[in-house]
Design goal:
Bound molecules: NADP nicotinamide-adenine-dinucleotide phosphate
CATH topology of the largest domain: FAD/NAD(P)-binding domain
Strand content: 5-15%
Shape: globular
Number of helices: 19
Largest sheet: 5 strands, parallel
CATH class of the largest domain: Alpha Beta
CATH superfamily of the largest domain: FAD/NAD(P)-binding domain
CATH architecture of the largest domain: 3-Layer(bba) Sandwich
Distance between the termini: 48 Å
Strand order of the largest sheet: 3-2-1-7-19
Number of domains: 3
Helix content: 25-40%
Oligomer: single chain
């Protein structure tokens, strides 16, 4: 049997010289996997050229330059023969062979339990198996009078729209902004880019061979999501500049009565059978209350509400905060300002990543688009080393003798390596080094990517790192912990978001008049991060305790959640039920497991303040689960977990 899908590769028509040049940009282990698919010859798996254990940031399997050259030479023969042949591939490798290939590829055991998840993530057969399969043909009658409200058109809202569109279920997406993209629409600050590798930070069913950088900038990401919304027909179903003010569950008809408000302030009421909240966790800017704030005479704005009318050229600027947003914007802003003061309450740990600002070569783009299966295995290579393998270094070892600075031996190794990385950049700047090396364990807060631009900016003569919080603001500047005022023209708050107020400020009222915000208080919990008892047919994406702080990409998590939600809707539509409500005991058991799991993680470390925790220091936003577990739990909805209403 010949494979027809060839993992959606474009035909190869280029000459040998072109191909040879493109191969210079190849990830060699990835190329080896493609060669196996193209030739069907498995002898490479027995050869002496073998990738070593995959590590984050390396895509060459730590192979020697000679070995890389040898594989390129062989690959040129394979690709030219494929080009000159009939364009057909041998039968796809068996599942056993794929497993051998996986293990060879990443130089370590890929446990059997991971194989189905990774196969699905790679989508080798181009079948998009995460899409909903209808089990009953006659469900169409119910589909026609079932209408879903999706709140938000960011990454997860667009994804939900795509799946509902494919399933033929009516839906409306409401979006408070004037365009799609969510976080990639709102964050326009200089230097805004993703910090998860892009060939993996994209929908599994919609790969993109044309990312211009390995970590694309905001515009390109926004364009990608808009392209997806357009391609899959979601765009026409989005009501822009419309906010959900409130939603109330109506027992009499099993519907949500939703109050919507447009940009003119006009309110209308609509009914929906189900709501999917895709509002994200990081979009309500948080500006700390600092004494004297109202006195400042110059422009003040938040990183996620960048004021492009303010020209920073030649200005004296204060940036408050040193989280992910600040780490990206400070190096860019410093190129314009005459003097920049960065107020750091606590420093961040960073992954060294030389590719962080690098462009993707034309050769690499060509390989991704033209070499069968190359892009699929490349996705695997980006996913795997940043997957569950990191989890052990985040779990507290109660016997570990240095609990203040690290949580276990692996975590300590990371601390030493990351500290050395900073030291290597700051030779001769002992003062600065003392300020920028965190005292808390690595992974305690959101890890950041760095290519050296952060510290290179801080050592500039016209940049000052103020090693304290911003204590006070005056008419003319900002005062730090040393009591000294830094006179500035502009203040930028890179101080994060209200992360603990999920679905805020919407008023959601469920069964028995229960208010969602009151139910949650400051410790929101949801079964699988998705459903909440007494709020029937309400589903959260990126809900409580679903942020990924150890592995994967939030797109992976959203694809898991959307599949679960679609399976729930399928179940409702294929049955005579109109509503599903998570059983309290199921929810509570999940919450208890969650609390137990959190207590063992670095995120709960007493020396760490972060947006993962609530004001009482309890972790609320982040997921402690292995990706493979969460993937398994969300593959299908078990209706035994729900109370069903006729
Ligand atoms: P954040 O991580 O919550 O950082 C806020 C910063 O403000 C922290 O450094 C905090 O200090 C500081 N801060 C708060 N009040 C302060 C005060 N009075 N004086 C001095 N500093 C103060 O917010 P963010 O940087 O906007 O990032 C939020 C999340 O968004 C990230 O963790 C990430 O998940 C996401 N994000 C992703 C990307 C990306 O993918 N590229 C980019 C940006 C953001 P403490 O640390 O001491 O609290």
């Amino acid at each position: 049997m010949k494979s027809q899908t060839q993992a959606a590769a474009l035909p190869i028509t280029e000459d040998d010289g072109f191909i040879a040049e493109a191969l210079e940009s190849a990830s060699i282990p990835t190329l080896m996997m493609a060669m196996l698919h193209i030739t069907g010859d498995l002898s490479l798996l027995e050869g002496t050229i073998r990738p070593q254990k995959a590590v984050m940031g390396d895509t060459q399997g730590l192979l020697t330059l000679e070995d890389q050259a040898e594989i390129r030479r062989q690959a040129l023969d394979v690709l030219t023969a494929y080009r000159d042949g009939d364009g057909q591939l041998p039968a796809p490798p068996s599942r056993e062979t794929i497993l051998r290939m996986m293990r060879f590829f990443v130089g370590e055991d890929v446990p059997d339990t991971y194989v189905p998840m990774m196969l699905e993530e790679m989508d080798l057969d181009n079948e998009d198996s995460r899409a909903t399969a209808w089990k009953k043909k006659d469900s169409s009658t119910r589909k026609s009078d079932f209408h879903v409200l999706v709140i938000g058109s960011g990454m997860s809202g667009v994804l939900t729209g795509i799946r509902l569109e494919q399933a033929g279920i009516d839906y409306t997406v409401v979006e408070k902004n004037s365009g799609i993209g969510g976080t990639w629409f709102e964050n326009t600050y200089p230097g805004a880019r993703v910090d998860i590798p892009n060939h993996f930070y994209c929908y599994s069913f919609e790969p993109n061979s044309n990312w211009s950088e390995f970590f694309a900038r905001r515009d390109e990401l926004r364009d990608y999501f808009e392209h997806c919304a357009q391609k899959y027909g979601v765009l026409d179903n989005i009501c822009f500049e419309t906010e959900v003010v409130s939603a109330r569950w109506e027992e009499s008809n099993s519907q949500w009565s939703v109050q919507l408000r447009d940009s003119q302030g006009l309110e209308i009421n609509k009914k929906f059978n189900a709501i999917v909240s895709a509002v994200g966790q990081l979009n309500r800017p948080k500006i700390p209350s600092i004494e004297g704030m109202e006195l400042f005479q110059g422009p003040v704005f938040h990183s996620a509400r960048w004021d492009h009318d303010v020209d920073l050229n030649g200005k004296r600027v204060a940036v408050i905060g040193t989280g992910a947003s600040a780490l990206q914007l400070v190096p860019e802003v410093a190129k314009q300002t005459s003097q920049l003061h960065v107020f750091q309450r606590s420093p961040a740990w960073m992954f060294p990543n030389p590719n962080y600002h690098a462009e993707v070569s034309e050769g690499k783009k060509w390989l991704l688009a033209h070499v069968p299966y190359y892009s699929r295995w490349y996705r695997f290579l980006l996913f795997w080393p940043g997957s569950d393998g990191l989890m052990p270094s985040l779990i507290v070892d109660p016997e570990w003798p240095h609990p203040d600075r690290s949580v276990n031996a692996l975590n300590e190794e990371t601390r030493i390596a990351f500290t050395e990385y900073m030291e290597s950049q700051l030779a001769g700047s002992t003062d600065l080094l003392e300020k920028v090396v965190p005292q808390y364990p690595p992974f305690g807060k959101r890890m950041l990517q760095d290519n050296g631009s952060w510290l290179a900016t801080l050592v500039r003569e016209d940049v000052e790192l103020v090693d304290s919080e911003a204590r006070k603001i005056t008419a003319t500047g900002v005062i730090g912990g040393d009591g000294r005022e830094r006179e500035v023209d502009v203040i930028v708050f890179a101080t994060g978001f209200h992360t603990n107020k999920f679905l805020w400020p919407m008023e959601i009222t469920g069964r028995q008049n229960k208010n969602l915000a009151e139910t949650w208080g400051d410790e929101p919990r949801a079964y699988l991060g998705i459903t909440v008892p007494d709020f029937p047919n309400l589903f959260c994406l990126y809900g409580p305790a679903t942020n990924l702080a150890h592995a994967g990409s939030i797109i992976f998590n959203s694809e898991c959640q959307v599949r679960y939600i679609m399976d729930s809707l399928r179940g409702l539509l294929e049955s005579d039920y109109s509503a599903m409500d998570c059983r309290q005991e199921v929810h509570d058991q999940f919450a208890e497991n969650l609390n137990e799991a959190f207590a063992r993680t670095v995120w709960a470390h007493p020396g760490v303040e972060s947006w993962y925790k609530n004001s009482r220091g309890r972790v609320t936003t982040t997921s402690p689960w292995l990706l493979v577990d969460y993937w398994n739990w969300t593959r299908a909805c078990d209706f035994a977990d729900y109370t069903l209403t006729d």
